[in-house]
Amino acid sequence: MNCLLCEQPKQSSPSWQSLIAIEKSTLICEDCSNQFKRVDIIEVGDNIDSITSIFTYNEAMRNYLHQYKFLQDIALAGVFSNELKQALSKKKAIIVPIPMHPTKKIERTFAQVDELLKAADVSFEDLLIKTNQEVMGEKTREERLSMSRLFQIKPQVEIESTTYILVDDIYTTGTTMQHAALTLKEAGAKTVHAVTLIRAASEQ
Amino acid sequence: MPKSINPAIRDFLDGRIWLRLHTPFTIEDINQQIEAGHIEIIQGIESKLVFMNRKSYTCNRCENTDQSKFTIFNCAKCEASCAYCRNCIKMGRVASCTELIVWKGEQPIYPTSHTLAWEGTLTPRQQQASDDLTRSQEINRSHLIYAVCGSGKTEILFPPIFHLLKQGKRVCIAAPRVDVILELEPRLRVAFPQTEIESLYGGAKPTMKASQLVLATTHQLYRFQHAFDAIFVDEADAFPYKADETLQKAVRKAVKPTKPIHFVTATPSDKLLVEAKSTGGISIINRRYHGHDLPTPAYISLWKYEHHIQKGRLPKKLTDWTNERIKKSEPFLIFFHHIGFMEKAEPLFQLIHPGIHSVHAAHPDRKTYVQALRDKAIPGLLTTTILERGITIQNVQVAVIGAEQRIFDKAALIQIGGRVGRSSAFPTGDFTLFHNGITYAMDEAKSEILKLNKGGGTNPDELPFM
Ligand SMILES: [Zn+2]
Ligand SMILES: [Zn+2]
Ligand SMILES: [Zn+2]
């Protein structure tokens, strides 16, 4: 199999890892893999107990997201499976992906966060519904926070007094996460953490 | 609803195969032409059941059938298992539930009034090749122009292209690499000032006109179908075209059935040579335009150069070669086999001169640096094989570091040497292969150059290495 990003044949280097059978993602080549930079940052937010982000938003990541989301290349969902799985295995919790608006999901033909989790073989529960399709970027921080809640709990779903982890692909201003966390907490969640694949620099 | 043709849509769509939902027109305008019967809809991916009830997919845009390049997923749009093609995904994804459209209404009429404003003259040998090519086109025979680097290949094409344009025919010049297209475009615009010309490559916006002369990277031909009366493939032996079967299929799909595909190259593959010889559609030019010899490579050993450069030491032979170029104010190109290795060497070269930079295919400043080298604003560039073709820099001197590396096959070395001595003002120059061992490819390249310089290859029956 060629590297999913640069299409060059991957060099298979038989190493000690393959000898003791540690399974590593083999979807991309080493050169491409080296372009992604870890950030491994943990932040605390309002209404949210912790936000863990794995990678920085550099040019390689911008290209990756472009191909995955804009060009709809679902095959790329598994590129960061190892990292995502590792970040989500630390706590015992119910994992909840940030949902897409249904219209947007049909347009894209898939829900990008769900696919990341599926590819990483992480079980999750779709507990939230996106209620509003407005684009965040056009609003000021005040406007974003004063907007009515972006999410609601799915009908017939019981939120327990336990720990939840929200998952999103990219964390920028934090508004999305705040809204989702607050929605869960108001419904009875005890603790809400978040894990995002990418930490983008916020303008604020 | 009127059955009338929307001429703007016709002019854009003629010969193209396009995503229904991503045209430069409104959905309503496209729908109207579909209802009027001028546009046909084609399913993006076709599947058929093969052995053991497995599905076999074909992409109707790029004609890819390599099953490893299809991804199957649960589609939220068609609410079924859906397949998409990764081979042509960069041009907008084609999935099972994607609709492709082609124009099937009345065809646009292309003008027959053109001028050829090129003022040079062809050498007798160029003229002969040009006439041969026109004759091959008339009998719909594919033709190979086998012409050494710097022999004026493009000018040979002017008369046959002019001839086709005057008959209202539609013509395409395709090349595997965008650099070749970018270099050709201004020359063709000058040569054919009256002709509607369009250049297509990744990131270029299509003009909305019915372009009669299309310059395109071979990738762009995925989006054409039975469009051209002739296609000229320049640098037909270059990557990725020579190794990618779907690009070869794309060229065949883009030309009208029964119409010919012509090839122009300084380093034809044996397969191309054998085919051309068997049909007789071949012209050979072994002399450069200015009549001087092709530069022959000098071999200089550079033992364990990878180790030294990794350790931060630039071998003295390289420092000397570079210093000599700078002393003589000669622009230079130094070719590397690997980007990472080249970037290790870059700071070491910058100790010799801070103006030396490296470029590669994805480098954002590639065009700027190449122009800076032409303008003599910088002394030289380190480069991957991306600059092996289609680039002309007056008085450029060339070295290869690691000429024994596999990427430097016979054709690549001949092309790299072909950068040297192209202008009649500076018809010679330095062409040095720094190596850690001499390979078969190096010797093959050298003896082919020597043979061509001696006059070999003029007669198709005495082709070198046949
Ligand atoms: Zn890669
Ligand atoms: Zn395709
Ligand atoms: Zn579908």
UniProtKB/TrEMBL annotation, chain A:
Transmembrane segments: none
InterPro entries with a match to the protein in the record: ComF/GntX_DNA_util-trans (IPR051910), PRTase-like (IPR029057), PRTase_dom (IPR000836)
Pfam families from the UniProt entry: Pribosyltran
Record domain Phosphoribosyltransferase: where: 116-202
Assigned protein family: Belongs to the ComF/GntX family.
Protein name: ComF family protein
UniProt organism field: Sporosarcina quadrami
